[in-house]
Amino acid sequence: MRAGGIKGEGTSRMNVAVIGGGYAGMAAAVTLAQHGMAATVFEAAPQLGGRARRIAYNDAALDNGLHILIGAYRETLRLIELVNPDAGHALLRLPLDWQIHGHFRLRAAPLPAPLHLALGLLSARGAGLNERIAAAAFMRALRRINFRLPQDMPVSELLRQHRQGATITRRLWHPLCIAALNTPPDVASAQVFVNVLRDSLNASRADSEIMLSRVDLSALFPDPAADYVRSRGGRVLTGHMVDAVARNGESLEVQARGEKFHFAHVVCALPPHRAARVIAGLPLLGEAAALVERFRYQPIYTIYLQYPGRVALPAPMLGMAGGLAQWVFDRGAICDQNGLIAAVISTEGPHQDLTQDELAQRIHTELEQHFGPLPAPLWQRVIAEKRATFACAVNLQRPAQRTPLKNFHLAGDYTEGPYPATLEAAVRSGISCAQRVIASPRSLSD
Ligand SMILES: Cc1cc2nc3c(=O)[nH]c(=O)nc-3n(C[C@H](O)[C@H](O)[C@H](O)COP(=O)(O)OP(=O)(O)OC[C@H]3O[C@@H](n4cnc5c(N)ncnc54)[C@H](O)[C@@H]3O)c2cc1C
Predict the structure, then answer these.
(1) Is the CB of 42 under 6 A from ligand 1?
(2) Which of 172, 175, 267, 270 fits 274 for a cystine, CB–CB 3.0-4.6 Å?
(3) What are the backbone angles phi and psi of residue 175, rounded to the nearest 5°?
(4) Would the CB of 20 count as within 6 Å of ligand 1?
(5) CB under 8 Å to 57, separation ≥6 — which residues?
């Protein structure tokens, strides 16, 4: 058995383990480090980032999936600023410009919120005037009820109740629901969708800005976060899979790589299906485990096609209609990976029946249908994240960060909160767990 913490090293006054080095876990570790608590992070994979991580392929730093951040991701952006010395250059900021190529375009007007959106909706191209007026009225109605629905319902039902037209539903609301909640509108939670509308479209113009990372997703936050934690006496152990956590008197015993480490607090920042396994060994966590067991998951597929460097899209990010690809990204415009196009398909669908080669070929064909003849790709790579996010269903109950076991905290995008599975949900949950640890009087080293 080893003392898990790092007594005597750095300024730690409490032994804290963070299990999982994704955005939630690293947000917890950074927040603890900021308050003089040096945590030990256990990450199973060789690199940090979890579901937002770098994948090295053919000399290119790819991401496991293209990620969109928005200006409303306050906590994520704050922590990136804190740990990433290159934060100013790391994100490409774009004003809201929702384009479904050849079909629809909504741009934020240069006015203060909420007029930027109201005018944007009224002047959107690709939908009739009545539909645009109904869309602006929908946002107004939500504002009147403070974005709090009397009861949850599927997103498609909410849109029906507010008489949203077929075009605006197909080109704006449904794609927005799928992009934000990664859940089909017929089952997606309208309340969570409305929370997203409140904090993205209804707030300031800056909050509705879209941000794309110019660096890979591990380099954006988790890697510099690890440097920050280490520089304050913490440890970040990659390649350390945690097999179990058990109670041992007042402390918690973390088992990893055949060793046992003891901690005063554990922040469990695993993806939900893995967390369920770890917490199964802790009887007090039965209720949380039962909630997680009921989760369903949705996939996200990312298809990278590397063309000769001269190939470019008309915009860094474009919506697509009529095929499998939902969004395409020009990595040349975003992060100087010239000729590299990434297509994204969220939620389940017929693309899952194709082989990876068939899928890449289909996307190549769709790109040609939209943008004209293209040379053959030099290489292609399909990344299928089968459990990309939990399905954000109506009335879904999510476990709280606080658990009946006072020194065991649950972090992760799936824990209780207003947002769907996003970087911001993950980061906020990690911060919240760290704050509980900081506020706690218990300490192994006291
Ligand atoms: C393809 C894709 C696209 C996405 N697009 C967006 C987007 O555009 N915008 C957005 O905001 N969000 C997006 N998301 C969601 C976002 O990535 C997640 O919400 C977020 O990364 C979750 O972070 P987390 O720390 O909660 O969990 P995770 O990232 O899953 O982190 C958990 C960590 O625990 C580690 N681990 C697992 N088991 C063990 C173990 N036994 N011991 C130790 N470590 C372990 C894992 O390796 C991982 O690093 C996307 C997700 C995917 C997959």
Answers:
(1) yes
(2) 270
(3) -60, -35
(4) yes
(5) 304, 381
Please give the DSSP secondary-structure letter assigned to residue 171: I
Indicate whether residue 75 lines ligand 1 (CB < 6 A): no
72 within domain boundaries: no
Residues 131 and 185 in one domain: yes
52 C-alpha vs ligand 1 centroid, how far in Å? 6
Cis peptide before 114 (omega within 30 of 0): yes
Tell me if 258 is assigned to some domain. yes
3-state secondary structure 307-356: CCCCCCCCCCEEECCCCCCCEEEEHHHHHCCCCEEEEEEECCCHHHHCCH
Count of the separate structural domains present in the chain:
3
In a domain, 170, yes or no: yes
What is the CA(271)–ligand 1 centre distance, in A? 6
340/303 same-domain check: yes
- Contact criterion met (CB below 8 Å) for 300 and 385: yes
Per-residue pLDDT tens digits for 119-142: 999 999 999 999 999 999 999 999
**Whether the CB of 297 sits within 6 Å of ligand 1:** no
Element (H, E) at 115: helix 115-122
Query: How far does the centroid of ligand 1 lie from the alpha carbon of residue 136, in Å?
Result: 34
Nearest residue (by CA) to ligand 1, atom 13, is: 422
Cβ–ligand 1 contact at 436 (below 6 Å): no
Ligand 1 lined by 47 (C-beta under 6 Å): no
| Parent domain of 233 | 2-53+216-295+394-439
Judge if 368 and 400 occupy the same domain. no
User: What pTM does this model have?
Assistant: 0.96
Q: Which atom of ligand 1 is nearest to 179's Cα?
A: 8
Domain identity same for 251 and 318? no
Give the ligand 1 atom nearest the CA of 42: 43
- Whether residues 116 and 190 fall in one domain: yes
What pLDDT was estimated at residue 196? Answer: 97
Residues 291 and 301 in one domain: no
Which of 70, 300, 2, 8 is closest to 17 using CA atoms? Answer: 2
Question: Does residue 444 have a pLDDT over 80?
Answer: no
Domain end position, chosen among 143, 166, 198: 198
Q: Does 205 fall in a domain?
A: no
- Indicate if ligand 1 lies below 6 Å from the C-beta of 24: yes
Residue 23's CATH number:
3.50.50.60
Residues 367 and 324 in one domain: yes
